[in-house]
Write a structure and sequence with these properties.
Number of strands: 13
Radius of gyration: 29 Å
CATH topology of the largest domain: Phosphatase 2c, domain 1
Number of domains: 2
Number of helices: 8
Mean pLDDT: 80
Shape: elongated
CATH class of the largest domain: Alpha Beta
Strand order of the largest sheet: 1-2-11-10-7-8
Helix content: 25-40%
């Protein structure tokens, strides 16, 4: 069977049609100039017509060039946005009975992501979450973000203990830094060159939420999270380790925080850009006060992320000095009353009861 497709006229705004029109008009103007008798050039009307013609050609060329550049810019932004969304993908709305939401504000104009990172994955060992901040901000820090997130996504499933995940992330970052150092200083050969990238480090907060709501945390120079349950309290554990990349991890990496997230309670994770955001008067953003106000009513993770982003932009007038990443968890697992002769157990809600 032969299919005949009907011919469709090109759209009036097609780029090739505009270019053809401009070239035809320019050719007409040049032909006029070359064929016009010299005597006509001395008259006022031909001079005006010639000036108007050249002006129209110049305007058309400028508009066409602008349109082409804007089209290329839009296509480039679409490609960059797709790559950035793959790198810093949105977490699932639900993970093993936990409601999850995350988002980032980049300090670099036109960038969807910057030097902050986050991820949440469900594993056989529990729901594991990471949030971090690469030294510096903007697109220059994306390679370090990719190295840390790539190591986390692989290790979170393989490592039975949380310290093992942190060690794998440290090794991944060190490989990245060595490769960058050699690329920037090829004359050093296989040796470790002195390079500015050796000063690059990443603050990391690594969490694991078990089926019973138990929370384990490892902290490498990162702000501690808030727990929301009618108020906002900072969960502070043992002294944090140094940021990844600044110093090697010690031989023993003990869990620094052990707590529990009860049904209905919320964990709010953030990077230091949220607390360090200032307005024009130099006043810091009142993060704890904003969270305490939000904790007075029902907390939606997605709504809380959106509200905090809006409040940050209002406070700074849209001029962020550093990237801001937020990740919110709410325990939606239900507590089943204990049966006679039995123990209370927790279970995740059904899809209709979520």
């Amino acid at each position: 069977m032969i299919r005949i497709r009907a011919w469709r006229a090109p759209r009036a705004g097609a780029p090739w049609l505009r270019r053809t029109f401009i070239l035809a008009w320019a050719a007409a103007v040049v032909t006029w100039e070359l064929t016009c008798p010299p005597a006509l050039h001395e008259r006022l009307l031909p001079r005006v017509v010639t000036c108007v013609a050249f002006l129209l050609v110049a305007t058309a060329v400028a508009l066409c060039t602008r349109h082409c550049l804007l089209g290329e810019l839009r296509r480039t932004q679409e490609i960059a946005g797709a790559v950035q969304r793959v790198l810093l993908r949105p977490p699932p709305a639900r993970l093993e009975g936990l409601a999850v939401a995350a988002g980032q504000l980049s300090a670099s104009r036109g960038a969807a992501v910057g030097g902050d990172l986050y991820e949440a994955v469900a594993t056989p060992h529990g729901v594991r979450i990471v949030i971090g901040d690469v030294r510096g901000h903007g697109l220059g820090a994306l390679s370090a973000v990719a190295a840390v997130l790539g190591s986390f996504r692989e290790a979170a499933y393989d490592e039975p203990e949380l310290p093992g995940v942190l060690r794998r992330m440290e090794r991944g970052l060190h490989r990245h830094l060595r490769e960058r150092a050699r690329a920037e200083h090829p004359s050093a050969g296989g040796a470790e060159p002195d390079s500015p990238v050796s000063e690059e480090f990443v603050t990391v907060l690594l969490l694991e939420v078990g089926p019973d709501g138990g929370v384990l945390a490892l902290n490498c120079g990162h702000p501690w999270p808030y727990r929301l349950r009618g108020s906002a309290e900072v969960l502070i554990g043992a002294d944090p380790l140094p940021p990844l990349g600044a110093f090697p991890l010690p031989d023993e990496v003990p869990v620094q925080l052990r707590t529990r997230l009860l049904p209905g309670e919320v964990l709010f994770l953030h990077t230091d850009g949220a607390e360090d955001a200032r307005n024009r008067a130099g006043e810091y953003f009142p993060l704890r006060g904003a969270l305490a106000e939000a904790a007075l009513g029902p907390v939606s993770p997605a709504g809380l992320v959106a509200d905090m982003h809006a409040a940050l932009l209002r406070h700074t007038g849209g001029r962020l000095a550093d990237d801001v990443a937020l990740l919110v968890l709410r325990n939606d697992r239900r507590l089943v009353p204990a049966q006679p002769g039995g123990l209370a157990v927790r279970r995740a809600p059904t899809p209709h009861g979520a």
